[in-house]
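Hi R.,

Here's the chain you asked about this morning:
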Amino acid sequence: MYPAEYLYSKDHEWILIEGDIGIVGFTDCALREMGNAVRVELPEMEDSVEAGEPCGAVEFEKAVSEIFSPVSGEIMEINVRLAVQPELLTQSPHKDAWLIRIRLEHPEEMKELLSAEAYEEYLQ
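And the predicted structure, written out as tokens:
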């Protein structure tokens, strides 16, 4: 069900590694329970983020959810489409609705993340 090439956090974020860049998004599991996204607040370009720390938030119809960075590093890009199309989060959570791209500061942090299979087991 979850893309095997991604890694997952217990906070329900996914990360796809491309060289020294991690592309981060929310898993559809997190999104199904929240309803439609109405506003997305992302960090600024070049901000530093720490693994496990909040770096933004998504306001849904039912609640607000913080975005936790699965790795430490520098924000290289934010998905500006989400500012005008927050509904992309629920329409395409594992493709078009990526949140941020991070230049990895400590690649060894990825060892703390879950494979797709381990994430699915965690959800049980």
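The two ends are 13 Å apart (CA to CA).

Let me know if you need anything else.
M.
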